[in-house]
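Minimal example, chain plus flavin-adenine dinucleotide.
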Amino acid sequence: MSDITEYKDVWVFIEIKDHVEVHECALEILSKAREIADQIGQKLIAIVLALDAEQYLPTIEDYGVDKIIYLSHNDLKHYHERVFTSLIYNLIDKYKPSIFLFPSTEAGNALAARLAYRCRTGLISDVLNLELSDDYGNNLLISDKPAYLGNVLVKIICPSTRPQMCTITMGTFQKKKLKKKDVEIEEVEYNYDINGLKIKILGAPIRKDKPSSTLSDAKFVIGGGHGLNSKANFDKLYDLAKYTNGQVGGTRRPIMNGWMPEHLQIGISGETIFSDLYLSLGISGAIQHVVGITDSKTIVAINKDPNAPIFKVADYCIIGDANEILEELLDHYRVPE
Ligand SMILES: Cc1cc2nc3c(=O)[nH]c(=O)nc-3n(C[C@H](O)[C@H](O)[C@H](O)COP(=O)(O)OP(=O)(O)OC[C@H]3O[C@@H](n4cnc5c(N)ncnc54)[C@H](O)[C@@H]3O)c2cc1C
């Protein structure tokens, strides 16, 4: 096994979504990776493989990188596991990154798994938080990831092999633009012979259009839960959002009840919010929901049960009937048509 002290720098795999744009999740990861690189005094390096990869460099440069390593070639137009694994493994072997982060997407998860195997290192998938700690060793990365159907969050470390590798769930971190001076750019020569491949990728994946939510950018989020008791009551959240310039989201229960579309779910399998204010109405505070709201600056929770778990994470706890309080808020904020 190679000496782990030889490994340095924080790498991020920049996925090019459907070969047209930098994946948002990669930009979110860059912002967190910048913090980590600063904490350990090492470089943040973005890795890009694409057809005409140069066109993506200006976007990546806006997110705090010290260096971009890229490969640009016709064969990289479509993501191919064998090609990408081989080329990136060569880079890891040459430069020895200490940390390597990937978007938790189809391509990111598949690629990270193959690379982790090739490097004989560990991989932590679907990570929801990252921090550095000296508790288990020098500047070790601690990754929080859900386990047991999301009922617990576990902390995982990779103490004795490198790189420390994670895939990170979309929406976990907030992307922040930051332009560093003198970003170093390195083009690496493409040297893979695709003639031996058994599978050729002929086109980009065909995806169903899914509505997207703007919850992660919203300053004021109004979250509704099963405790609102009916679709008619839940619909009143949209009125409150209209009067207060807020955004409606909620738990999984209103989706199951048919009150709310799926893309507005907040939590482990939905969006993470970073609002200034989160108002929660009739929500119990299951861990799967709570992990999506704790980055909000202020949480106000309304629940009729004084022992509801949501009160453990709320800054302001209102014990009462959410529907009655919702009516009062509407009376207060209603703007005459
Ligand atoms: C693998 C997995 C992933 C999941 N992912 C997510 C996820 O991403 N996001 C998510 O939200 N959930 C997720 N869930 C579901 C999660 O476990 C909970 O079931 C869900 O969050 C509960 O929603 P709720 O709080 O609206 O409903 P409930 O748990 O039924 O809570 C309703 C609350 O309303 C209160 N209440 C009732 N009437 C009133 C009233 N009139 N006024 C005030 N309060 C009232 C009750 O006291 C109760 O606390 C996931 C579950 C699994 C297994």
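The longest strand covers residues 140-147. The chain has a mean pLDDT of 93.
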